[in-house]
TrEMBL record:
Keyword GTP-binding: no
Keywords, in A-Z order: Hydrolase, Magnesium, Metal-binding
Name the record gives this protein: Predicted protein
Organism annotation: Micromonas pusilla (strain CCMP1545) (Picoplanktonic green alga)
PANTHER family given in the database record: PHOSPHATASE RV3661-RELATED, PHOSPHOSERINE PHOSPHATASE
């Protein structure tokens, strides 16, 4: 500091500040070290500033220095209260103006910037803090002391700090995505196709068995399905979690999942898709709706159907995977990743997708068939129930004023055949 300021023509800092003639040089050096002077305080401002600060602050400015010799030198420069210590002067109302001026000088000497440019306060837009290397100390106590000194100076109006900037809250809000799109959210099983997740699993499992083993396994698994029906009636989310255990130990390699999905689509899903559902999806695509499937089925299992429907996004259950033993490759653990996609979780996923992709839910549509879809139907501007799966769902549709569509009934009247060519051409 002595070299930079050049006090007293080469004299030491202590000697220079004790010499009346050197005091003028000291002041000039301080101004030069602080860079361009951005503001000035007259004597009335200093007095008012000091009185106000002495009444409102209780910090210790001496903590802002790191060297005891420098501290003593500053005390000599300030010549506080007729020889009082710096600490005593801070608590002395008569010496307060000098303490205030010292705080301003300390700011300019140590940091080269006026208090109005406090480096760590919120930026004008209140988003990010401005990084400043001068505030990176090895001692947290020292840093807090330096912050107190600068905040002391920044608290007075004569410093011409925009108080709105000083007090602006520090926010870290995510960029707001304009809601300029609309989407159509579809449940799958019972809404787009006359299908269910258990039947999908049975088809995939039987394809891996010989005729003999299928003959033994199917009756036993039918008993388990009766149990699943009871659980599903009580809670669709609980059923999804229990059902995932059936996949435990099955191969989860990319090739295995792709093969399993294609078998399920060809042997089961293809002929069960409602032609009116396909036509409705195509019409919505023409109206620039994003098509989103929201289903409790497994994500990899419905990939072929998602491609046929030209779905823009799929929200579905996903199974955990791990490395199998004895070089078996990747296998399913029998657990779902995250919360099952059913009931209230459907609403959560739909709203998250809308937020991330700029979807205006008030202009969007949703389609479902059961009470587990009700939460999803509630969060859009226009909802429809497809062939209600229960009296409770039909009653709910009437109460809410939701449109009721008979896609399943129309499919059955047509003999249950899929307009497969229409779907493939979609």
């Amino acid at each position: 500091m002595e070299s930079a300021l050049g006090f007293g023509g080469g004299a030491s800092f202590e000697a220079a500040v004790s010499d009346d003639a050197a005091a003028v040089s000291t002041t000039a050096a301080t101004t030069a070290a602080g860079g361009e002077k951005k503001f000035a305080l007259d004597e009335m401002d200093v007095a008012a500033f000091g009185a106000d600060a002495a009444a409102k602050t209780s910090f210790d400015p001496t903590a802002a220095t790191c060297d005891e010799d420098d501290q003593e030198a500053m005390e000599s420069v300030l010549n506080l209260a007729g020889g009082k210590s710096f600490e005593a002067a801070v608590n002395d109302s008569e010496a307060a103006p000098a303490v205030s001026a010292a705080a301003l000088s300390l700011d300019q000497i140590a940091f080269g910037t006026p208090p109005s440019d406090v480096p760590w306060r919120a930026s004008p837009d209140g988003v990010d803090d401005v990084d400043d290397e001068t505030m990176r100390t090895d001692d947290e106590a020292d840093q807090e002391a330096m912050e107190d000194v600068l905040n002391f100076a920044a608290s007075h109006p004569s410093c011409q700090i925009d108080q709105a900037d000083v007090t602006a809250p520090k926010t870290h809000e995510k960029p707001v995505i304009a809601k300029s799109h609309k989407a159509a959210f579809f449940d799958l099983d019972g809404t787009i196709a006359n299908s269910n997740v258990v039947a999908q699993y049975v088809v995939a499992k039987c394809d891996q068995m010989t005729t003999f083993w299928k003959f033994l396994w199917l009756p036993l698994y039918a008993l388990k399905c009766a149990f699943y029906l009871v659980v599903d009636w009580l809670s669709r989310s609980t059923f999804n979690a229990l059902f995932a255990r059936d996949f435990r130990g099955m191969s989860a390699t990319r090739a295995s999942k792709k093969k399993m999905a294609q078998i399920v689509y060809d042997k089961y899903m293809h002929d069960r898709v409602f032609p009116n559902a396909v036509a409705h999806v195509n019409a919505l695509k023409e109206e620039d709706y994003k098509i989103v499937l929201v289903t409790g089925s497994l994500d990899f299992m419905i990939e072929p159907l998602a491609r046929v429907l030209r779905a823009d996004h799929v929200i579905a259950n996903s199974l955990e995977e791990t490395e199998g033993r004895y070089g078996k490759g990747t296998v399913f653990t029998g657990k779902l990743k995250g919360t099952p996609v059913a009931d209230e979780e459907k609403r959560v996923r739909v709203m998250r997708y809308a937020e991330q992709h700029g979807i205006d839910l008030a202009r969007s549509k949703a389609y479902g068939d059961s009470l587990s879809d009700a939460a999803m139907l509630e969060c859009v501007g226009e909802a429809a129930v497809v062939s209600p799966s229960s009296a409770g769902m039909r009653r709910r549709a009437e109460e809410e004023g939701w449109e009721v569509l008979g896609w399943r009934e129309e499919h059955e009247r047509a003999g249950g055949a899929l307009a497969g060519r229409a779907g493939a051409a979609a």
